[in-house]
Structure formats: C-alpha cells, structure tokens
Design goal:
843 residues, alpha+beta, 5-stranded antiparallel beta sheet, 22 helices, 28% strand, elongated
Length: 843
Amino acid sequence: MAFERRGAYFEIQFSLRLVTKPTSGRNSNRPVQVFRLIYLDFYVLRKSVNFEDCQMLTSYALQTMVDALPIAACVFTGPEHIITAVNQQMLAIWAKDVTVIQQTLYNAIPEIREQGFSELLTTVFSTGEEYRNPLGSALLIENGQEVLKHFDFSFKPLRDDDGTIYGVVNTAIDTSERVVAEKSLKAVNNELIALNEEQAAVNEELTSTIEQLVQTETAMQKLYDDLAASEGLLNQFIQQAPAGIAIYTGPKLIIHSINQAAQSLLPKREFLGRSVFDALPEIVGTPVAGNLLHAYQTGEVYQQSDVLIPVARVEGGELEERYFNLSYIPHRNAEGTITGLFSFTIETTEQVKARREVIDLNDRISIAVDAGNFGYTEVQLATGQMRCNAAFKRAYGRTPDQELTYPDMFAAMLPEYREEVRAKAMKARDENLLYRAEYPVRWPDGSVHWISAYGRARYDSKGNADRMVGLIKDITAEKQSEEMIINLNKSLREQEERLRLAVASANLGTWFMDVQTMAITFSDRLKQIFGYYLQDEIDFATAVNQIAESHREQVALAINAAITEGKSYDIEYPLVGYRDQQLRWVRATGKTFTSSNSDNASYFLGTIADITERKQDEQRKMDFIGIVSHELRSPLTSLNGYMQMLALKAKKTEDNMVLDIAAKAKRQVDKMSSMITGFLDVARMGETQIKLNNKAFDMADLVKAAEEESLATVTSHHVIYHPVEVTPVVADQDKIEQVLINFINNAVKYSPQGSTINVACITLDGWAHVSVADEGMGIPAKDLPHIFNRFYRVESESMKSVKGFGIGLYLCKEIIERHGGIIGVESLPEKGSTFWFRLPISN
C-alpha cells in the first residue's frame, strides 16, 4: 500500500501484530498502539513524521485490512468500546454508514442499548475470554423500522506484545435468511412425514447439516509513529483470522505468508516458499489459475463464491470436489507496481451440499406429490384466499381451468361431515398438530366421491398461524375396494369351507410343512394312507423312507424343486405302510406358498390320494391288452395271408371288384395290426422293455414322407406342410414317424371336414421343433394337464362320437421323453389345438 502525507511517503505490506509502548514528550503519559510491519519494505522518504501522521496511517491500514475481509468485521478499542475500524458488510448489518467510526457502540447504535451487547464486550475486554454465539439475534433499526436479525457472531480480545488487552474484534455473519430457511425446511419436512404416513414414507426427515460458516476474527487498533516495530499487530490479525489468508509475491506468486486457517484447509501440504502453482498443481490449467494471474497482471480485485476446485488432501492423492469462496487483492510497492496478491479463502463445501440437499428435498417433495396424485392447497387464514393444483380441483370434480374457492370446497362436502372437518382443522391450527379426515364430496354432476385429507397450519415469525396447507387424495376406489374386500373375504370363507368339504369328500390326506423349520403336520387321513395309527407321530425322513426305492429319489427331487424353484408338484409313487406293510400307490400334489410379510416361500401344502385301486385297474388293463394283443396277432397274420392270396387270384382273373375289396380288407387288417402294435408298445412301456433303434436322419425327410402318405389317405382336410427346414437328429425314425402320424390322424379326427391342418418342422433354440396345428374343437383347460396320461379321455358331448382307448398320446409322450425330448400342447376350446414335440439337434 502506498501512502503520502505532509511530504512523507510510505509503502506498506501487511502482516499485523500489536505492540504497546509508552511515548515520550508531550504524550508520554498515554500508551500508544503501533503496527509492526513484516514481510515488506518500509520507506520513509522524508523523516518529518509526527504522531498524528502515524495515527492516521494506522487507521488507514487497519481499515484497509478490515475492508478486505470477506465477512462482516469491526474493531472496538478501549473500555468505552470505540469503533475504530468497520467494513461495509458490518455497516450493512447495522444499517449505518461510516460516520459511526470513532463513536462508542451505544452512540453509534443506540437501539441495542438494552440488548446486553455492552455487557458482553466489557466482559471480553476485562477477562480476555472469547465469546461466540452462532444463534445470536438483535433488534436493529432499518429504514425506520425495527427489524429482528439473526447472527453468528463473536467477540475476541486483542492483545499487544505484552499481553495487555487493548480492544475487541467483532466478526459476524448475517444468518437471518438461513434461520428462516431452516425453520421453513423443518416445517416442510414435518409436514411431509406426517402427510405421507399412509403412503409409506415418501421422504426421510430432513436433517439440517449446514455447518456454521468459518468465523473470522481479527483485531486492529491505533498506529504509533514507530512503524518499523508494528509488524506484530498485522501478523496477529492474519494468524487469528478464521478465514484462510495467504500473501503471494512476485510474478510466480510465491507463497510468502500463510495463516493457520489457510494451512488447515490442506494440513499436509507444504506452502511457504513455493509457487502457488507448485503447491497446488491441481489448479494448473483451470480457471482458478487464470483468475490468479489476471488479478496479478491487471490489478483488478477478484471475488467469487462457491468455486469448485477438485483438490487432494495429500499432494498426489485422490481428488475431492470441494467448494471455496475466493478473494484475490493485489498489493503494490511505492512506485505503484503490483508486487503480489492477498488471498482470502473460506471453504463452503458443506454449505453447497446443504443447499443441494434443500433443492433435492424440494424435488422429492414435488415428485412425491405428483407420483401420489395428491391434490395440494394453501389457504390464507386471514382472507380465506385459497390456491390449489389441478389434482386438487379434479378431486372435487373440477377441471384445471375452473375456479375452486374455499367456500366451494366446504359446500361440496356432504353436510353431515362439514363441522367435523372444520373442527379438526381448527384444532390442528390451535395446537400445531396434523389433522386427518376422510369425507365424501358431491361433484357438480351429482356423483359422490370420497376424499382423504391431511393438513397442518403454518406460522409467521411471531408464532401466529397465518396459513393452512394440506394434501388430499381421491380414495373413492379404495372405499369401493374396501367394500369389495369385505364381500371377497366372505366369499373366501365360504370357498374355504367348500374346499374342506371337497377334501373330506375326496378322502384326501393333507400335509403342511414350514420351509424354514421343516416342521410337518399330517392329517389323520394321510396317516391312514401311510399305514400309521392315528396317535402315531410321523417325521419327514421316516415318511420318505416308506416310498419305494425305485421312486424315492424322484419324489425327493420333485419336493425340493417345488420348495426352492416354485415348480408344480404332481407325482405318483408306491409306498409301503408303516405298520400294515401293505403296498399302496398314491398320487401326491403340492405347492409352495409365500407369507404375506415375506418374499421367500414360507410353507408347503400338499395332498395325498390313495390311487391303489386305479393302479390295479390299469395293471389289469395292461395285462388284458398284452394277452389280447398276443392272441390277436395269430388270426390277423392268417387273415393277412388270405387277403394277399385273394388279391393275387383276383389280379390273375382281372376281377377288379374282388381286387378292390381285397385291398380295402388289407388296409383294415393293417390298421388292426398297427393298433395291436400300439397296445403292445404301451405294455412294454410299463415294463420298460421298449427298444429304440437310433440313427441319424433329417426330420425334414420324415415330414416329407408323412406328406406323401397323407396325400393318399387324407382327402377330407387341407394339410399344409410349411415351413419345413433341415433339422438333423439322432433318433428311432420309425418311432418318431409314429408320433407325427398320430398327431396328424388326431388333427383329422378332431377337426371339421374341409378345415386346414398345418404341419411345421423348424429349428428353435437348438431343438428340432415339429408341430401340428388344427382348427378343431380344442381341449378344455381342465383337461390339458392330463391329456398325455395313459387311458385319459376328454369327457364331453362332442367326444361321444369319437372312438379311442386313450393310449395314443400317452405312447407319443413316452417315445419323445425316452429320446430326451419335450412334448406339449396349446389349445383353446372351439379354436383348435397345436400339438408339438422337440428333439435335440445333432451336430
């Protein structure tokens, strides 16, 4: 800083420390405070300097430093608390101008006389103990009006080199807006939590984490004529300041001095004696570096808030995104040349995060209101003026462009609910509570709708309720659902009773297993089926061991798949009674169920039916089929020979009629022979004696052979073979052809004449996929799970005229599954059916 007075020319660079010395001469009876200047050159070009010159120079330097601080600050000196230096930020808070300088606190600001600040200053001045209040407040006069302002302020004593207190430095940050915002945020957060109690907590309670701004404190007092000894006061001011302060010198901006607050921002960095670009390599190439150089080169003061600087706490470490308020003030020599920069730094990372959290909270509130289709309203209690969103109007049967007033809202309520709702709202207002109400409203079209409403009063700075805010939601559907649920529960209870009766009538055994504990409960009927006395206890392991060894592993795997994978459990197996040692066949079905309060299967419910008699019937059928099949083969063989002889004789005699009859008889014999072969195959399936003659062939060739045969035998339907692709497989070609012909014959048998049958053969996910689709009568949904069972026949009026034993599809299933393939059907009644099978493609 350059200064000229009465022919004396001074150059000052600041690092302030206070020194108190006695004077001699005419002022020898009063202590005088002086500045000792360090880190700079001091020149007195003319030695005619008196005390007033030094005092004026001291005030100028002190005022310059206070002005440079980024927060409100002032210096009080002496027990009278005389305002020696004050910056514009503090004057703005007081709503005063520079005329307060050299006045006592109460003369300058008389309105705070009874607010206790003089007592605090006197205590700090007399005891030397710092006082800080982040939640301070004061009533000040601004534009002729009394205004309550909030501050985060501190009083800190200033001492000379001998430790004598000569004054107090006051720093302050106006927190009025933040306090109001915190109160508002707290109120909004409380409302959000309360208003979303039945919507499962849309947002967590806002936790205000806004840390207090770094407080800056410094002290400056009078300047004595011995400027060479005044370096201590300026240095003390810099070192005590909570704002980060550093002095850069030269075009390379070497860090000449740095206070503790600046060092604490990056405590593990070395700064002194290094260029700022070497000490902070992260800023090289960024706007921060450019702004530093611009301030040094142009002499312009640079100030910016919330600057993002990715910086590492340890040099070369991981970068963190941190925010800072930055100020760069050039300093000059006696000739006016810029020699360096003063740097002021305050970290604002937490404040930036807090603001983002506030923005995020407001966004989440808006999203929650929109997502929940809430209607929102705010009513001014003094005037009754109401504003609301479109969803609120829709809940009252209005369009977004129609007007809806506060009286309209109450008029729409059914009369018997109005006073109750009004009373709840007033009670919530008087006791600062959330009110909740459900009530019906009548829309302009006369229809009645139900509304669920939540509301809370809002209060001004004096604690008076001035607004009522609320959320509403149309719950007409929920009310209707409640009525439906009541009826449904009644119906479910009736169905449950019918189910119990059905289980009892079907003579089924039931069992229940807790999946987590494996605890099992068996019904009395199940105990009977497993050969136990009713008083016997059964455990799961013993029950499994009663299953025939040939089926035991299959049953265990099926139960495990039902529990762990949710697969259906439907299996037949033999078992030996525990006490009576009788062999029984049972059919077991079951399913896993999930508890309403859990995502995992929690219990397994199964049924057991005694099918011994059915199995015995099937065995008797199989025995009969085997016997009859063997007995019929001999006469059929003879009959087939007679037909061939008859055909040869007719051919020689050229008797065409006999030749035709012989051919027709031969076809019937072949059909009967094929039927007997099928019966024998069924019998062999049951005895696991069927043999497969596997070889490599193309399914497309087999489909073409079936096409040629159908052209000669099927004249009543349109059979389309498309698409047909090359699909190489390894299988028993005769058996697979038998399956395909069975599918085509069934399609002819169960679909109306003249309809279309589509046969396709394609490659699908590594499988040869063959399908036969018809436009026939279709299969009812209840019969689809059993259509491939042995001897199963669909019972319906349309099936009475169709003959069959129910073994064809069973035989097809066995053939395909023994090839490692898959067989299935899709069908809709009166729409048609598609039977298909898949075989693995061979390489």
